[in-house]
Design brief:
By secondary structure, the protein is mainly β. Helix content is about 5%, strand content about 55%.
């Protein structure tokens, strides 16, 4: 108790960033359960899943824990915790949650697939993710949706199938650029595998900083894909919705309203 009172007095005296001697444990990554599937819906067996931290050029090259998908494509990772001896206090600044990167790979190379959050406490509720392997420009890619980030949605209808909207990012040199892709799906036989008839990138006219909240909706018999975006302007950052009208395989047009 006396030590805690002394820490509180030190906290009151801090007018700039200063360390307060309070031992505590943070959860860098919560328990994670998930499943990994191909674009046709079949499970991926024996894939590597890892957790990484930091903002290195290739963060997935330095994972701290790994798991392997089983015969159903499922995987499980235990929580990662870290003990600290002090708490850094910065006036008028809220402490940020620890963040982690979920990395996925069917071979030795793991790729970033999901950004999640831990907890400032020793306990954190588990995160459940659904991961998808898909092809674009002759490359395998992985994208996951979970509690912290929804990146894949399916729905709508075209003549013989439905749509899948995927939000991700790709390396463009010094930074990663947001990318939105639509797949036209069909299932030729009931209960059989899903076939990807076409894949198209949605055209962004501006350089975007961030893309999120993918959605598919119907207006007057036409299906549209929408997402919220953030782009840099001369006066700061502008947040706005982008909408695209979807048609038969390979056809997508940006529209002002949908």
């Amino acid at each position: 108790m006396p030590a805690r009172i002394a820490a509180l007095l030190l906290l009151a005296l801090c007018s700039a960033a200063c360390p307060v001697p309070i031992r505590h444990t943070e959860t860098l990554a919560p328990p994670i359960v998930g499943v990994l599937r191909h674009s046709d819906g079949t499970p991926i067996v024996g894939a590597q899943i890892g957790v990484a931290y930091g903002y290195a050029k290739s963060p997935c090259a330095q994972t701290t824990s790994r798991a392997t998908t089983d015969s159903t494509g499922s995987f499980r990772l235990v929580a990662t915790q870290k003990d600290y001896k002090v708490v850094w206090v910065i006036p008028n600044f809220d402490r940020a949650l620890p963040s982690y990167l979920l990395c996925v790979g069917a071979g030795d190379t793991l790729l970033p697939a999901y950004n999640g959050y831990g907890s400032l406490d020793a306990e954190a509720p588990p995160d459940s993710v659904t991961c998808l392997e898909w092809e674009w420009r002759d490359r395998s890619r992985f994208t996951c949706s979970g509690k912290a980030q929804r990146a894949v949605v399916e729905g709508g209808s075209w003549q013989s199938g439905w749509y899948r909207l995927i939000l991700t990012s790709e390396d463009s040199g010094r930074t990663r650029r947001p990318l939105a892709v639509v797949q036209w799906l069909e299932q030729p036989a009931p209960g059989g595998p899903v076939t990807v008839r076409a894949t198209a990138e949605l055209p962004f006219r501006d350089v975007l900083e961030w893309v999120a909240e993918p959605a598919l909706g119907e207006v007057y018999g036409r299906w549209c894909a929408s997402m919220i975006t953030v782009r840099k302007t001369h006066f700061g950052f502008k947040r706005e919705w982008l909408r695209f009208r979807l048609g038969p395989p390979g056809e997508a047009h940006r529209v002002g309203d949908c």
